[in-house]
């Protein structure tokens, strides 16, 4: 164990951590948008809308995340879409997350009892009001646990950015290890990778705490509504 | 730069992809089987509250589930040799993926075991079953049936996550594809082949598991 390796490179790791946080934040944001839009579209009646969306969702769900990252980074330029490592990772994670999230949202919407649609319609609400005021609130609350799981995976997936060259936590660890092994020798691997695991572990615990707080809060308000 | 889809190239890489597919399938079978076995052992140790072992297993499960698999792979492959554990990429891959999957399967199983109705455990005690018999013959079957869907999901994740092992050079599907691309710059053909490979594995596995689920659920139709 050579902890000075961590303290000496503290600032470097801090910036790498910020980069990971940025990738996480951006991909969660886009994931949520894609998930709500595509998840809703996938519940619509016309097959012309539903079928292609379901196909795209299935495509991204069945392919490993790394493959979608590699596909956007190495494959998309063939179609004229040339993205840097950071943008490619965020796009790939968002599409992957969006596809999985859309499936979750679709499940939530189909789980809303059908009489809710019918009651809302008989009250004369517009389709937009039916969706935003009646269906979406009831659909989104029960899917918080599944959505939290998705966010957790997305947080871990920020490490995939290292494979296409973004300097986030894992890549920063590799750089520090390479340099330390080259100039100082010794055994930096366990220490530095262990440190990265520790950082992710703490971040994961923090997120679990935040999610259980969310669940408790929304669960309560839901219980009050019901009784 | 690159011409549209080139069929002759596509067929020329088919054999390489079959080799990769074989490796991915091998990883899928070995890792999932070992992980499920380990998960039952771990879940039993936690269930019976074996003192230090229980805490260690719970800590292990939470560490694995709260850290990225890719970092775990690098930690094991590049870190462990420093304390004398030096294994080749494929062995390292099998070990890490098995440990990863077993943590998730343990969590799944624990969920099932905790949800076995209290009346059932009390009835077992009233009948005078030894705790170990009660666990093996009553708790495990009931819990397993409840968690089969969750375990299936984890198995599919394990198969898909085997793609991460390409980062340390395990010659599975993704590695084959990226290797080909590095060699010939033909991205599209390789990604199409990759997609077909994973679709075949994942959909085939899902079909198999659905029939298994139906088999396990027989007599439980509502």
Automatic annotation (TrEMBL), chain A:
UniProt-listed Gene3D superfamilies: MetI-like
Organism superkingdom: Bacteria
Any one Gene Ontology cellular component term annotated for this protein: ATP-binding cassette (ABC) transporter complex
GO biological process terms held by the UniProt record: amino acid transport
InterPro entries from the UniProt entry: AA_ABC_transptr_permease_3TM, ArtM/GltK/GlnP/TcyL/YhdX-like, MetI-like, MetI-like_sf
Membrane disposition: Multi-pass membrane protein
Signal sequence region: none
Cellular localization per UniProt: Cell inner membrane; Cell membrane
Family: Belongs to the binding-protein-dependent transport system permease family. HisMQ subfamily.
Record protein name field: Amino acid ABC transporter membrane protein 2 (PAAT family)
From TrEMBL, chain B:
SUPFAM superfamilies the record matches: MetI-like (SSF161098)
Keywords, sorted A to Z: Amino-acid transport, Cell membrane, Membrane, Transmembrane, Transmembrane helix, Transport
InterPro entries: AA_ABC_transptr_permease_3TM, ArtM/GltK/GlnP/TcyL/YhdX-like, MetI-like, MetI-like_sf
Transmembrane annotation, as ranges: 25-45, 57-78, 90-107, 127-148, 191-212
Record localization: Cell inner membrane; Cell membrane
GO BP annotations listed: amino acid transport
Described function: Part of the binding-protein-dependent transport system for glutamine; probably responsible for the translocation of the substrate across the membrane.
Protein family: Belongs to the binding-protein-dependent transport system permease family. HisMQ subfamily.
The protein's name in its UniProt record: Amino acid ABC transporter membrane protein 1 (PAAT family)
Organism: Chelatococcus asaccharovorans
């Amino acid at each position: 164990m050579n902890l000075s390796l961590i303290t000496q490179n503290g600032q470097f790791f801090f910036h790498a951590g910020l980069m990971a946080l940025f990738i996480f934040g951006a991909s969660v944001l886009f994931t949520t948008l894609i998930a709500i839009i595509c998840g809703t579209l996938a519940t619509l009646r016309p097959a012309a809308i539903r079928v292609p969306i379901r196909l795209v969702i299935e495509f991204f769900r069945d392919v490993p995340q790394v493959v979608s990252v590699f596909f956007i980074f190495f494959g998309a330029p063939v179609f004229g879409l040339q993205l840097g490592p950071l943008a490619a990772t965020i796009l790939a994670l968002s599409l992957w997350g969006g596809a999985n999230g859309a499936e979750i949202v679709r499940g939530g919407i189909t789980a809303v009892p059908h009489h809710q649609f019918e009651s809302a319609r008989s009250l004369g609400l517009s389709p937009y009001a039916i969706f935003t005021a009646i269906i979406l609130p009831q659909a989104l609350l029960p899917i918080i646990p599944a959505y939290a799981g998705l966010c957790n995976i997305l947080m871990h997936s920020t490490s995939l950015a290292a494979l296409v060259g973004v300097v986030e936590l894992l890549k920063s660890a590799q750089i520090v290890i390479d340099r330390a092994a080259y100039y100082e020798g010794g055994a930096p691997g366990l220490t530095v990778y262990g440190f990265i695991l520790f950082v992710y572990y703490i971040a994961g615990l923090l997120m679990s705490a935040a999610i259980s707080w969310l669940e408790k809060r929304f669960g309560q308000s839901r219980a009050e509504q019901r009784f | 730069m690159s011409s549209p889809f080139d069929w002759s190239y596509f067929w020329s890489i088919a054999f390489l992809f079959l080799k990769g597919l074989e490796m991915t399938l091998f990883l899928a079978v070995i890792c999932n089987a070992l992980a499920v076995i380990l998960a039952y052992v771990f879940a039993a140790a936690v269930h019976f509250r074996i003192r230090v072992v229980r805490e260690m297993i719970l800590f292990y499960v939470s560490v694995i589930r709260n850290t990225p698999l890719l970092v775990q792979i690098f930690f094991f492959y590049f870190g462990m040799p420093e304390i004398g554990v030096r294994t080749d990429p494929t062995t390292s891959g099998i070990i890490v993926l098995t440990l990863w999957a077993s943590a998730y399967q343990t969590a799944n199983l624990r969920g099932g075991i905790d949800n076995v109705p209290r009346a059932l455990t009390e009835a077992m005690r009233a009948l005078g079953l030894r705790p170990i018999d009660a666990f093996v013959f009553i708790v495990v079957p009931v819990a397993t049936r409840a968690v089969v869907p969750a375990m299936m999901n984890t198995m599919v994740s394990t198969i898909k996550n085997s793609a991460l092992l390409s980062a340390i050079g395990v010659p599975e599907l993704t590695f084959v594809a990226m290797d080909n691309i590095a060699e010939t710059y033909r991205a599209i053909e390789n990604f199409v082949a990759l997609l077909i490979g994973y679709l075949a594995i994942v959909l085939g596995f899902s079909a198999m598991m659905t029939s298994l689920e139906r088999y396990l659920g027989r007599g439980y139709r509502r």
